[in-house]
Amino acid sequence: MEAQLEKKSMLWINLLSIVIPLVVALMLGIRQKFDLGAWTKVLPHAIGMINSLTAVLLLYGFYLIKQRKIEQHKNVMTGAFTLGGLFLVCYVAYHISNPSTKFGGEGIMRYLYFFVLISHIGLSFIVLPLVLRTYYFSWTNQIARHRKIAKIAFPIWLYVSITGVIAYLMIKPYYL
C-alpha cells in the first residue's frame, strides 16, 4: 500500500515538475495581457520580498537542522515551501497582466544581469522536482532519502532565491 502511494506521489511530483515550467513558459509567450488591475504593478516588489524571505528561511532552516531542532526546522522549511507557492502565484499574476520589463543596463552590467537571470531561471526548473521530493520525503518520514536530496536541493534553492533578489534589484529601476 505504501509503495503504491509513493508511486502515485512521485507521478504527481514528476507531472508538476513538467507542467509548472511549461505553463510558465506558455504564459510568458502570451502577448495579450489580462487586465487584473493596477495592483499587479506592485507584484515585482512583493516577489523580491518573497525571494528575500525564502533565502532567510532557508538559511535559518539549515541552522536549525544543524542544531538538531527538527520540529522547528520542519516548520521553517514549510514556511519556505509555502513562500515558493506564493512566489509562483504572484509571478503568474504579474506576467499574465503586465508586459515584460526590459533591462536597460549596458556593458558589463548587462552581461552580469543576463548571467544572473539565466542561471536563476535554469536552476529554478532543476530545483523544483528536488524541493518537491525533499518535502515529500520529510513528511513521509523517509529521513535518509530526505537528507540525501536536501544536500543537493538546499544550495540550488538558496542560489535561486538569492539570484531572484539580485535580478529584481538590478531590473527595479526599469519598472514602469
TrEMBL record:
- The lineage's top-level taxon is Bacteria
| Residue intervals passing through the bilayer | 12-30, 42-64, 76-96, 108-132, 152-171
- Which UniProt keywords are given for this protein, alphabetically ordered? Membrane, Transmembrane, Transmembrane helix
* UniProt xrefs under InterPro entries: DUF420
Q: Which Pfam families does the entry link to?
A: DUF420
Show the PANTHER family listed in the entry: DUF420 DOMAIN-CONTAINING PROTEIN (PTHR37692:SF1), HYPOTHETICAL MEMBRANE SPANNING PROTEIN (PTHR37692)
Q: What is this protein called?
A: DUF420 domain-containing protein
User: Origin organism of this chain?
Assistant: Emticicia agri
Q: What is the lineage of its organism?
A: Bacteria, Pseudomonadati, Bacteroidota, Cytophagia, Cytophagales
